[in-house]
Amino acid sequence: MEIMPITASKSNAVKQLQKLLECEKVISFGDGKNDIDMFKMSDRSYVWQRD
Fold it and tell me: Which position among 17, 27, 41, 50 has the lowest Cβ density within 10 Å, counted as fewest Cβ atoms?
C-alpha cells in the first residue's frame, strides 16, 4: 500500500522542476502506467521495456 498526497505525481514533480530549472523542453523515461501523465506533458518520452 502506498499513501501519499493526492497532488503527488510524476507529472507534478516534472512541472515544478521545469519551472525551477527554467527548462524549455522535457524528456521523460518510464516503464509503467503511472508514467502516462508525465509522458503527456513531456516534449519527448521513451518507454523502458521490462523483461
Answer: 50
pLDDT value, residue 3: 82
Residue 21 lies in a domain: no
pTM: 0.76
pLDDT band at 2, cuts 50/70/90? confident
Residue 5 counted as domain residue: no
Structure-block grid coordinates of residue 22 = 527554467
Question: Is 32 in a helix, a strand, or coil?
Answer: coil
Domain housing 40: 10-15+27-50
Q: How many domains does the chain divide into?
A: 1
